[in-house]
Every structure is written in structure tokens, then in C-alpha cells.
Amino acid sequence: MEHLHAHLSHHWNAAHQPRIVTVPCKYRAGRVLGHGTYAVVKEMVQIDTGEHFAGKMINKKHMQGREAAIPNEINILKRLSRRHANVVTLHDYFETPHNMYLVTELCTGGELFERICQEAAFTEQDAARIMRQIVSGVEFLHANGVVHRDLKTENCLFRTSDRDSTVAITDFGLSRIINSESNYALTTQCGTPGYMAPEVLQRCGHGRAVDMWAVGVITYFILSGATPFERASAAAEMAAVVKCEYAFEPVEHWCQVSPAAQHFIASLLVYSPDRRMTAKQALKHPWLQGEQRMVMP
């Protein structure tokens, strides 16, 4: 394992400016768990306790011009941490001369994306159990004024390798705190292609409803092993999203999926954010209530 050097104080003042104080390093860095655009996630061991964590290492040089994103992510995690079972827990944060570190709980069960690839398609019972947890986490975020804005299968982690493991939402790097109930309060185009809602691509303002569009995409993916707007090119995919052009195909697969599950997806992949189900409404949907066999209108 790699020893991290002595690091700087991990406290910010009200203007988000760091107080620079050198303190002894508390962690050893180990294997790489994942990569992102601006960060690498490594397994980290707290030296004095031997506890294992996940450390998001953010290169400061790569964040030039986006420095405010780091304290923003920390503030959001501090607001949410240890308050909901389906949101990852923040343990610590600090910086070295070249990197910022966010230390969170270590989820050893891998990404939802990996499990979908392994299983091809989940049973409806398993899919509903997983989606219930994700929607519950999203409802908690929204109730606390947080829009995730990059919800996807790679950002939903299983805490253990058990089949019935709990799921935790992670990676709040693009998240924002909004006080408005408007679905058009945010304007920056961000997210991951394939999960981005029409209003994000069209830059007409967005809000909490973008997370629910992503929930619809994830649900389609978990039930079929494919994403609803998958096309031969990125441009064709974006055009399909903007037109809300998708189908429950191939028919031979989707005819085995309950009407309730299809209705759940169709109530989320809706062009108008004002007509999309909210997280609170989704939790009450028959499919998440375990009524897969009921006939939907």
C-alpha cells in the first residue's frame, strides 16, 4: 500500500477558502476501485484503526476553473451523510499539495452496472427491491434540496456482495442544492449521455425531475440489460432522447415483464418534467409496492 504524505487541514471558511495547516497523514492508499473524469477512487486504510474506506482522489490541476465543485460536493455529503441507508456515508476529507481526498464508506459489492452485466436481466422481484432503494434515496435527496444530476448504474453501489445487499447512491460531484421547487432552476448541461433528460440536452432549465428520468432509464436497463435510447451514434441517441423515442422491445422479452413495471418506466420517461412522476409518487407506485401482476390502465 502507498503511504499518503502529510496533508493539509481539511477545513474551509465561509468563503470556501482552505485554512492551510499541515497535519500527519492518517491513511494508506491501496488498490484502484474506479476512475472518473477528474478523479480516481482508491481503497484506503486508516492507519490507527485499520478500517477500510473508499478515497476519491481529485487532482487539483485537472479541476482548475472548477475549484468550487469540491467544497460543493463536501457540503452536500455533510448535509446528507449518516441520515439515510441508501446514500453513501462521508467519513473524512482532506487535501495534499496536489490532490483533494473525500473518504467515504467502502462498498464492497460493486456497481449496479457490473451486476446488470453479470446477470443480463434481473427478476422483477429483485429489480423492484433495488429500485425501491434507489428511489427512496432520491426522495431523501430531493426532500433535502439536493439534485444529484448524474444518477446512473455506475453511481449505485452494493454495500456487500450478497444478493440482497443494500444499495447506496454515490458520487455527488455534479449535484446541486436548490431551494426552488421549479423543474427549470438549473441551467448547466451536465450528466452522462444515455441518462440525461431532454430538458438538460435542450438547455431549457432543469431541476429534481432529471433524477427521475434517470430512474426510468435505470429501471429499463435493469429489466432488459439494455438502455432505452441506445443508438448507433451519440447524435442519434440524443435525438431519440429529445423526441422521447423508445419502445419496449424486443417484444419477446418485454411481454414477460409485468404491465406495472412498464407503466412505472413510462411514467418516468416523459418529455415534460412537470408530468414526470416525483420520487414521492414513485414510491407509491404499484410496481414498487410489490404488485407486479396488477393490470395497469
TrEMBL record:
Spans through the membrane:
none
Which InterPro entries does this chain map to? Kinase-like_dom_sf, Prot_kinase_dom, Protein_kinase_ATP_BS, Ser/Thr_kinase_AS
**Pfam families linked to this entry:** Pkinase (PF00069)
The molecular function GO annotations come to: ATP binding; protein serine/threonine kinase activity
Which positions bind ATP? K56
SMART domains the record matches? S_TKc (SM00220)
Q: Which UniProt keywords apply?
A: ATP-binding, Kinase, Nucleotide-binding, Serine/threonine-protein kinase, Transferase
Span of domain Protein kinase: 27-288
Regarding protein family, the annotation reads: Belongs to the protein kinase superfamily.
Protein name as annotated: Pkinase-domain-containing protein
Source organism of the structure: Linderina pennispora
- Lineage of origin: Eukaryota, Fungi, Fungi incertae sedis, Zoopagomycota, Kickxellomycotina
